[in-house]
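Record type: ASSEMBLY
Status: queued
Input:
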Amino acid sequence: MFFDKETYVNRRSELIKKIGSGIIVLPGNSESARNFKANTYFFVQDSSFLYYMGINLPDLVLVLNCETGESILFGNEVSLEHTIWIGPQEPLRSKAYNVGVYKVLSFDKLSDYIKDYLNITKIHFLPPYRISTTLLLSNLVGLSIREVSVNSSKELIDAVVSQREIKSSEEIDELEQAIGITKEMHVKVISKAKPGLKESDLVGALESSAISAGGRTAYPPIVSIQGQILHNINYTNELRRGQLLLGDFGGLSSSGYAGDITRTIPVSGKFSAKQKEIYQIVLDAQKRAIEMLEPNVLYRDVHLAACYKLAEGLKDLGLMKGDVKDAVATGAHALFFPHGLGHMIGLDVHDMESLGENNVGYDTEVLKSEQFGLKSLRLGKRLKEGFTITVEPGIYFIPELFHEWKSNNVECAPFLNFPTIESYLDFGGVRIEDEYVITRSGSNLIGEYIPKEISEIEQIMN
Ligand SMILES: [Mn+2]
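Status: finished
Output:
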């Protein structure tokens, strides 16, 4: 339990009210074996289960009965034999009481409970993303494994998204706590980085920060001198003078909220003139995007405004040419910025992504584009007060993409100055990422400011 009992009681009763009829089944996660059953990965609870139940333990299923209004937790108390291995535990029954669930039944009662309702009313469940959950649901509702996901409840997905996308002030406190931990991790990496170290030296330092703070990293850290590889999680390179180092990582708050921040720094402690130019374009694009954040603005439009800013800067440097709006319309800028400007953040680093990007970041008003670049934008819909999001533009020089576009004479080629771009192919990449909460009239940075101006980064490094 992380918040008051009332928080969980209210969240569940609101969900029951929204769905109105039928049975809602919310399975928590199970332990996941690494190489044999008892040797498991770090346990991560299902975020929807955690949102409505607040218990961070494996092998539990929450059932909300919309017919009776009842919440029931299915799970087993720890046996004496297991206690010998893991020590005495607070009874499950008492944990459930603390979040206002007064009916706890053993796990083997779940199947009969659902069976009684199967042909009478609708059983609502979210799309599973782990095979163990798919199997559980397949057995409970009598569908084949293939049928489970497509039969998940759109009503339930929409109801859960509508609740979880609006963060309460206690959730924003948690996100701030995660940023506090994340700031320490970043400052440690910025102050420690220097030629001769390996990427893994820095990963060791940031992991130790996260663990010392009582948590873990929220996702596999990206710490790379090859920033142009967007999700590079190899840490074998040695840092050399003249290179840029991209660090995209964050910690978890004590109740499981994620931090997700990116900084890009010069290994030598000083940006070169060329690096400064590209870095400043990315920073200006981020600031342009942040200025626009307020309720009712389409995040797709914020993304596009950042793209215009990037394209303008790249045109000034002679890397792009022609009309900036036309260039962005054809997707030319995506050669340098192939991903989206940001995503929601909360209990998941890409919040609720398991419920489907289209169900979380888009709606009937804004449909996802299929254009290269724009199709990777995870959030396109109108912003609302209480949304918590990331703003993370970048510029990358991806040799493979460059060669492909150059040799295939792509439609947007007239906007690209290929010979000049070619002279940047060993540049790497720059990304700058911060988190914002949408307020009534604008937005606020979540948590403490983490240095990002060129002079601030150089000052910490020297
Ligand atoms: Mn991110």
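Annotation: Residues 260, 343, 390, 392, 433 surround manganese (II) ion (CB under 6 Å).
Annotation: DSSP finds 17 helices and 15 strands in the chain.
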